[in-house]
Amino acid sequence: SIGNNHPLRAHLDTVESRVPAELLDRMRRVVQHDASHADVPSEKALVRLHKQLLKALQHHNRVETQWGVMVEKVIYLEDAQRNSCSHDTHFKHSTPRDRTNLTNMIYTPTVEWMWVCRVRGLLLRFIAVVC
Prior knowledge:
By secondary structure, this protein is an all-alpha fold. It has two domains: 7-90; 98-130, no CATH class. The protein contains five helices and no strands. α1 (9-17) runs parallel beside α3 and α3 packs across α5 (109-130). The chain is elongated, with a radius of gyration of 26 Å. The model has no long low-confidence stretch (mean pLDDT 85). It holds the Pfam family LMBR1. This is LMBR1 domain-containing protein 2 homolog. Its main location: membrane. It is a multi-pass membrane protein. Belongs to the LIMR family.
């Protein structure tokens, strides 16, 4: 409802600049409205919209980060379960891990398999009994 020559266009551009491009494109595809029947928002309404947008973007980024962490955790737990049922004593990841050479020398796939599939569970049970 705010055209290119409207006095509040600069404020609307400020609000739109905060929205990531992919979300803005998705919003433009979903929202199809008739501008002739829409009410023109006031400057106060644009300020409120800007505040709501910042909160929504912060929430969106937080949820995306939590989602990524949970996906990594699920993949690790699936790997641990699959390796604990395997008779091979080498821990095999479904996705490659980024490790330094020193870490690869100390925490080898065999050591990782022994820790994840055998020792860690027993150690956690022992600590639970002691506590």
